[in-house]
Specification:
It contains three helices and nine strands, in the order H-E-E-E-E-E-E-E-E-H-H-E. The chain is an alpha+beta fold. The strands form two sheets. Strands 1, 2, 3, 4, 7, 8 and 9 form a seven-stranded antiparallel beta sheet that branches. A two-stranded antiparallel ribbon has the order 5-6.
């Protein structure tokens, strides 16, 4: 895990219990790249995915979506809900503290280059980033349960 170890531990300590209290159960099969959570609500399975930055920098986003309980079909092939990615689903979205689709808008422990050049510490405390995730997570729950998109949610194009 290297540069992301502290942030992963902070997210596990702060966010995993919050997701669990909301009824989401972790699925670690796609780790370390992605930590997935699922909960069944009525006739759908709601999916959360913490997607870590692929080059190992301490950054991530949280993608979410809802899959029919019987699975999701793509080009004639049916996938069971436990194999579906949130980004495949119509109405899926992404929680991120900043604007835009690039990694600058992601939850990130590393500071932008300009801040480092101005003398700021290269890394924010991992706990601050995890707290930011926990604080913004209710927007995801509102989107999944009521269809209301908050200001930190960006639609994904399946």
């Amino acid at each position: 895990m290297g540069r992301t170890t502290d942030l992963r531990r902070a997210v596990a300590a702060a966010f995993v219990p919050v997701a669990g209290a909301a009824g989401f159960r972790p699925d670690r099969r796609r780790m370390p790249a992605t930590l997935t959570f699922r909960r069944t609500v009525g006739v759908q399975v709601q999916i959360l995915e913490i997607q870590w930055e692929k080059y190992g920098r301490p950054r991530f986003v949280l993608d979410y979506g809802a899959c029919p309980a019987e699975g999701f079909t793509i080009e004639g092939r049916r996938f069971p809900p436990e194999e579906v990615f949130a980004g495949w689903l119509p109405g899926s979205g992404r929680l991120q503290p900043g604007r835009g689709m690039g990694p600058g808008a992601w939850f990130r422990q590393d500071r932008p280059l300009l801040q480092r050049l101005l003398g700021r510490a290269p890394l924010r405390p991992a706990e601050d980033v995890a707290t930011e995730l926990v604080d913004l997570f209710p927007e995801v729950l509102r989107a999944l349960d009521d269809g209301v998109r908050g200001p930190h949610l960006t639609p994904l194009q399946p």
